[in-house]
Amino acid sequence: MENLNIEETKYTPKIDMDVKSGTITIIGKSYPENTFEFYEPVMKWIEDYFAGNAQFETKINLEIIYFNSSSSKLFFDLFDLIEENNSKFNISINWIYDEENESALEAGEDFQEDFENLTINLISK
Amino acid sequence: MTYENKLIAEIETLKNDFINTTDKLIKDVKRQDKIMVRSDKRQQQEYDELQRKLQEVKLLQNEIEDTQKEVVFTMGAIGESRSKETGNHVKRVAQYSKILALHYGLSEKDSEMLKQASPMHDIGKVAIPDAILNKPGRFDENERKIMDTHAQLGFDMLKMSDRPLLKTAATVAYEHHEKWDGTGYPNKLKGEEIHIYGRITALADVFDALGSDRCYKKAWNDEKIFNLFKEERGKHFDPQLIDIFFDNLEQFLEVRESLKDQF
């Protein structure tokens, strides 16, 4: 299975998914023109990863500065997917936010509340 | 009997499927609603934040512009104070210049910029020795030569800048002693070779200087000034600007009145 790397653009985040280290990192803004199209390969990769390629210790770093509402929906789908695999692997999610970015912190708190079975750490920069 | 049981079993399955599907639908709709509410809230916060930052940028921009204006004006005042002219001289020249610029057809923006830059027209005088600058009576030939270098000196001080305001000031400092007929200095430029900023400031400066007491002369009366202007139309001064001056005389006299020197 190949790693997946997507460069940051004005409207989309930088994405690095590394099979060997079991690390998934998404950093930046998320305002894609077509959110589901943009994240399709990402979701596909994660599905394939959990279907036989995953490290037991898997770390997911999310540092999303700003995001639109369809990205928000996408993150729910992502957390659903993680939740489905949560019992088979030790997955930790780091929601990283800038101290001054209150709305990023609140979004992290909301996800914590919605996905009680997941380990979501709120980490301030 | 078996037939009936089978049907019930199928209906039971359907019922469970239906419940599962509706549960999932309800969950999805709730989630969707939640996303919308949160997104709206988040977007509002972000919008507020952006507005706040924009306001900050605007304030900073004003601050920069005000500082720039003040520095430019103060530099002009320094130049004037060395030659014992009053601070109001530069203010009046600035106002006259803007009136002339607007009637000549320059844009509000360019006219305002000229107004702000014109106080620096004599900045080169800071490099002229006091003994010459404040000499009562006429200059000898050598002193006149040194005095006249103030245009070049002023230009040299300002020419390095890329800022529009300082570029304008450099032009004004350089060309405000050029004359329409080509007998001025430092470059003996003629007619429209002289930048419009230079032609305007020349007229504004002379009008104010003639009407003020200086260390080497008493103020002229208006009749004498106007006669000189008519005589110098097309010689010292751009004829079009002289026409504008006389056509709008009250505006110039109003400025002179409102910015009178106080003793």
User: What is the N-to-C succession of helices and strands of chain A?
Assistant: EEEHEHEHE
Terminal residue distance of chain A: 32 Å
Specify the biggest β-sheet of chain A.
6 strands, mixed
Number of helices of chain A: 3
Specify the CATH homologous superfamily of chain A.
Answer: STAS domain
Poorly predicted tracts of residues of chain A: none
Instruction: Report the C-alpha radius of gyration of chain A, rounded.
Output: 14 Å
Which spans of chain B of ≥5 residues are poorly predicted at pLDDT below 50? none
- Fraction of helical residues of chain A: 25-40%
User: Approximately how much helix is present in the residues of chain B?
Assistant: over 70%
- Sheet-strand content of chain A, in percent, reads 25-35%
Strand order of the largest sheet of chain A: 1-2-3-4-5-6
Distance separating the two termini of chain B: 123 Å
Main sheet overview of chain B:
none
Number of strands of chain B: 0
What count of domains describes the coordinates of chain A?
A: 1
User: How much β-strand is present in the residues of chain B?
Assistant: under 5%
Average pLDDT level of chain B: 90
Outline:
The complex is a heterodimer of chains A (125) and B (263). Chain A has 125 residues and is an alpha/beta fold. In chain A, helix 1 runs parallel beside helix 2 (69-85).
